[in-house]
Amino acid sequence: MTFVDPHTVLSALGIAIAGGLIGLDRTAVGQFMISQPIVAGPFTGWLLGDATTGLLVGAALELIWILDMPVGAFVPADSTAAAIGATAIAILGNPGGVYVPGVGFSILLTVILAPITMMADQVARQFNSRLADAAQSASGPDLRKRIARAHVSGIGVFFLKSLAVYLAFIPVGIAAVRLFLAMPDPFHRAMALFVKLLPLMGVALAARKLSMKAVDLFLLGGFILAVLMGQMFQAPALVILPLAVAGGLLGARYRDRRS
Amino acid sequence: MQSLGFAFAIEPVLRKLYPDPEEYESRLRLHMSYFNTQPYLASYILGAVTRLEQERASGRKPVADVQGLKTSLMAPLGALGDSFFWGSLKPFAAVMAVALVITGSWWAPLLFLAVYNSVHVVLRAGVLVSGYRSGGDAVDLMARYRFTKTAKLLKVTSLVMLGVIPGVLPSWRPEFRIAVTAPDMAVSAAGLALTLGIVGLLRKGGSPVTFMLGLGVACLVMAYAGVI
Description:
The structure holds two protein chains of two kinds.
Chain A: H1 6-27, H2 37-47, H3 51-62, H4 79-93, H5 100-136, H6 142-181, H7 185-210, H8 217-232, H9 237-258
Helix pairs in contact in A: 1-4, 1-6, 2-3, 2-4, 3-4, 3-5, 3-7, 4-5, 4-6, 5-6, 5-7, 8-9
Chain B: H1 2-17, H2 21-30, H3 42-58, H4 66-102, H5 108-134, H6 138-145, H7 147-167, H8 184-202, H9 208-224
Helix pairs in contact in B: 1-2, 1-3, 3-4, 3-5, 4-5, 4-7
């Protein structure tokens, strides 16, 4: 398998276009959350014939930026680009099936991508703000057409921004993953551990944003419930989670009454 | 950019209400002024503005302050929507989905979409109608939807579900499971301790990117030191 085999090139191009379209859901069209890593990752994986790798990337990344909100002038890291980019390079860089260290390395590469995507997003937003000013200069029947054109152009700018990011990142990422495969064993063990620890880091990041406390009693309550139900009664997560939701609701009401 | 989107959305209404081209243009131009709020709750303002424009065009409220209404609503609705949709509903659905994926349920992303969108789409349509009916009475919006109270409940339940994730660590799918020979209880406790340790570090500051890079380097050091 060579780096520039037609299948890889076409797949990378296809993912760049699909990624550009999925990215629109973040800001410009719908916001139905198909751009969230937990959805975009497996979807990208499914397009490339390996949904499991996408599922791993999505689950590892979902909670990392979950509470970074686009408030005011702050533009959060593009978690969609991270999920789609990591899934694409993990699969296209090592097409032999799910390889956990390769997934870890791909995620780490996209972390480096985060500040670049934030900058690209800011540039796209600045450009789009000029579209509104340009539409203002029209008058008469032209005004309506200019508004519609500027509106569609703004969506197009967001698409092109994502497309450019993927077109630049995916080939470099594929090359990097292939180099990684030839690296010594400790690198592979390190990246396997990195993937396994990411969900806990995601839990910590989300908990930090949801609660100001160092040890939140609700978080602790969920942990105790899971340990009791899971390890004493062998209950699966599918049973534990509804109990956790019910417990959370009761706990919140109790806290409200006390306060 | 939202001002352009708002003007694009309200334009068909204005075209119908104002047959005089000059008045139509001046009203359309008015809606191109600065506008920024939470995108879902923009529907509420769109409904209210439609109502006011109708009343203005029909002569019932010839001096209706449409721009004043938009300006007064966009900031509070922005804060309310950010807190409810981005700060509560999205984490709630995401934590649930991650907990399920991590324990082996491949269909959890579909559940995430179903949970989030069943609330979001209904509310988005609902607030458009209530904006139109109430003419922008934000008190009516707050009383009807109880965003603040529901957001609190969602945040608390998200925290409880976050606690479940390290609690079920021994039953994580094999790709995420750390192979150690220790009792399940000890594995879960170690997971919780590590999580709380990271929370402690986060309280001192730092971005997710810094922490992820730090984690990558720490894993590499452990691998070369023979710890893993």
